[in-house]
Amino acid sequence: MESFTIYSSEDLRTLDRGYTQEPIDMPESEIIGKQEYIVHRDEFLKAYQKWNRHNHAILRVPDQLSHQDIWLSQRMAEEVYRAIEGRQESIDLT
């Protein structure tokens, strides 16, 4: 499966985004100082297409690095979708 990288200064593994909390076990890019998440393109597209935005404002997809789910707001999910459809290799959501 093809993978896609998401960079964010926020911890996408939690819904609590009111403040920055440094996760202990999360991969971080030393170059840009942001959290790094890897999703499978096909898995993301399937989840995005099945996603009922009216009942659930947040899209949940599995992160391949931490083996935990990440939570994307509608804006973030749409940005990732456009980047994947545009065949980009990564996106910075900050």
Descriptive report:
By secondary structure, this protein is an alpha+beta fold. 23% of the residues lie in helices and 28% in strands. The chain has helices spanning 41-50, 74-85; strands at 3-8, 28-29, 34-40, 59-62, 69-72, 90-92. The protein has a four-stranded mixed sheet with strand order 2-3-1-6. Strands 4-5 form a two-stranded antiparallel ribbon. Strand 2 and strand 3 (34-40) form a beta hairpin. The longest helix has 12 residues, at 74-85.
Kindly list the characteristics that best describe this protein.
94 residues; alpha+beta; 4-stranded mixed beta sheet; two-stranded antiparallel sheet; 6 strands
- Helical residue percent band: 10-25%
State which percent range the strand residues make up: 25-35%
Number of helices: 2
Count of beta strands: 6
Element order, helices and strands?
Answer: EEEHEEHE
Radius of gyration: 13 Å
Largest sheet: spatial strand order: 2-3-1-6
Mean of all residue-level pLDDT scores: 85
Coarse morphology: globular
Query: End-to-end distance, in Å?
Result: 26 Å
Report the structural category.
alpha+beta
Main beta sheet strand tally, sense and closure: 4 strands, mixed
Poorly predicted ranges: none
Secondary structure: elements and pairs:
Elements: E1 3-8, E2 28-29, E3 34-40, H1 41-50, E4 59-62, E5 69-72, H2 74-85, E6 90-92
Short account of what is shown:
About 25% of the residues lie in helices and about 30% in strands. With about 90 residues, it is an alpha+beta fold. The model has no long low-confidence stretch (mean pLDDT about 85).
